[in-house]
Specification:
three-stranded antiparallel sheet, about 280 residues, mainly alpha, two-stranded antiparallel ribbon
């Protein structure tokens, strides 16, 4: 050992790299020090502690049909029959709620919409509004000026072009102000039961990348990737399940990996706890 170099000492707390809790490895938060661990039986180091096998897996295909099927099966077990968290009674209310949910939370939107729809019960009522009338009612959802333009603009077009009914075709609903593919997929899938696309919000973006179901960052490309590997009859449910999973367990910062049923099929680099090898690009 070169002179003047002191070997690294383990933490007194025992929380240094490789120490296990309940037979599993706790991932260190120190950069470049997290162990890369493959599933399998642990072996024992010189100190008597169990550590995972360190060799890398071979011929790993993250979008293999068997792996995707297993992920879908576990999501079904975790979130059977979940649906959109936005409260609504008809297609128009769901459309408005989805527009308001941009850069906001479903909880916040659900606090605003009951009074909003009591005050303006029909799409015709919204179409007759001026921006200054609607803005105070939706201010707490953020970006209320742009959202007011979108909601009133969508209402006017629905009244003038679609007889007061929210269109149930992708090419038509995309002509409404403030409506892009995410909003269109929410309304078509949740209300009309039409799987013409797959919702990609911030949760679907994060979870699908962590699960290596896509390597893309753009929502449109992520949607295309997921549509290739998820059965079409599962598109709507899958999106709702992943959104719920992203809220409850696979959160952005410090995901609750120790409580996750998908843990041993997930190789995300930013996991907080793992029994499998980590993949640096899965995040």
């Amino acid at each position: 050992m070169p002179r003047g170099v002191t070997p690294r000492q383990p933490a007194r707390t025992g929380r240094h790299e490789g120490v296990l809790q309940s037979g599993r490895v706790k991932i260190s938060t120190a950069p470049r020090s997290a162990p890369r661990i493959e599933s399998g039986r642990p072996h024992t180091d010189r100190s008597g502690s169990a550590v995972g096998k360190l060799r890398r897996t071979t011929a790993y295909n993250p979008i293999a049909s068997e792996r995707v099927d297993e992920i879908l099966k576990r999501l079904d077990s975790l979130y059977p029959g979940v649906t959109c968290a936005l409260q609504h009674k008809n297609a128009w209310e769901l459309l408005v709620a989805t527009i308001l949910s941009a850069q906001s939370t479903d909880v916040r939107v659900n606090m605003v919409t009951p009074e909003l729809f009591r005050k303006y019960p029909t799409v015709q009522d919204f179409a007759a509004l001026k921006l200054e009338q609607l803005q105070p009612d939706i201010r707490s959802t953020g970006f209320f000026r742009n959202k007011s333009k979108s909601v009133i603009g969508a209402a006017k077009k629905i009244v003038s072009d679609f007889g007061g009914q929210v269109p149930d075709q992708m090419e038509q609903i995309l002509t409404l102000p403030g409506v892009a593919r995410k909003t269109a997929n929410v309304v078509l899938g949740t209300w009309f039961g039409k799987a013409e696309g797959l919702v990609v919000d911030t949760h679907v973006h994060r979870v699908s990348r962590r699960l290596e179901l896509t390597r893309n960052h753009e929502p449109k490309k992520i949607e295309q990737d997921l549509m290739k590997i998820i059965p079409q009859d599962k598109w709507t449910l899958f999106a709702h399940q992943v959104i719920w999973h992203g809220r409850k367990l696979c959160i952005a910062r410090r995901p609750k990996c120790a409580d996750c049923l998908l843990e041993n099929v997930c190789h995300a680099a930013d996991k907080t706890w793992s029994t499998v090898e980590l993949h640096k690009n899965a995040k």
